[in-house]
Amino acid sequence: MKYYYARVSTAKQNLARQIELFKELGGNKRTIFEEKRSGANFEDREAWDELIECVRSNDVIVVKNLDRLGRNAKEVRECLVKLADKKVIVESIDQEYLNEFLKTKLVDKTADSLAEAMLNAMLDTMLEVDLLRAEWERRELRKRQQEGIERAKARGQHLGRNKEEKYREKFKEIYRLTRDKDNPDYISITKACKEIGCSRPMFYKMEKEVELEKNIL
């Protein structure tokens, strides 16, 4: 059985993108577990606890990113090991390159002791790099936004009504309509760009900002 776990850190953040993605992969109301809890309150995750009660040997838990499982590489690895002991497989969409390792080395335990130790060290390193990279991208996004505000202030511009801000206001209204082709209100990215009045590069830039903001822990 394949289950899906979606998490954001605060009530203000939106789970919609993760849930849409899981539905595209075959998830439904019975198999998608969603949660709004911070990494600091892992013990209080009701949906996670409910999911753990459901899974059985050889079941699969799919997450958007392994950072949904813990605050740092150590916590993520501990969680993976506990699940592996139950013969539960974890698959990450963002870290797809790790999925085979997680299954064969942690769950199936096909490596000898020396190879397993080396691979475990490699896993810790890759997790740490991935989590640090994600945090760096979030910080850079916040930094660029703040720098943009400061530059606008220096030019005496009225913040919130400059050209890019107007784009973002329209983008927030239209973006969701580009995500689901089965939605009767679906529009293509080309049409969305025309509605917003922006270029494709600007559209993709705003899309990346939205996705990064959703993943802030």
From TrEMBL:
<feature type="active site" description="O-(5'-phospho-DNA)-serine intermediate">
    <location>
        <position position="9"/>
    </location>
</feature>
<dbReference type="InterPro" id="IPR006119">
    <property type="entry name" value="Resolv_N"/>
</dbReference>
<dbReference type="GO" id="GO:0015074">
    <property type="term" value="P:DNA integration"/>
</dbReference>
<dbReference type="InterPro" id="IPR006118">
    <property type="entry name" value="Recombinase_CS"/>
</dbReference>
<dbReference type="GO" id="GO:0003677">
    <property type="term" value="F:DNA binding"/>
</dbReference>
<keyword id="KW-0614">Plasmid</keyword>
<dbReference type="Pfam" id="PF00239">
    <property type="entry name" value="Resolvase"/>
</dbReference>
<dbReference type="InterPro" id="IPR050639">
    <property type="entry name" value="SSR_resolvase"/>
</dbReference>
<feature type="domain" description="Resolvase/invertase-type recombinase catalytic">
    <location>
        <begin position="1"/>
        <end position="156"/>
    </location>
</feature>
<dbReference type="InterPro" id="IPR036162">
    <property type="entry name" value="Resolvase-like_N_sf"/>
</dbReference>
<keyword id="KW-0233">DNA recombination</keyword>
<keyword id="KW-0229">DNA integration</keyword>
<keyword id="KW-0238">DNA-binding</keyword>
<protein>
    <submittedName>
        <fullName>Resolvase domain protein</fullName>
    </submittedName>
</protein>
<dbReference type="GO" id="GO:0000150">
    <property type="term" value="F:DNA strand exchange activity"/>
</dbReference>
<comment type="similarity">
    <text>Belongs to the site-specific recombinase resolvase family.</text>
</comment>
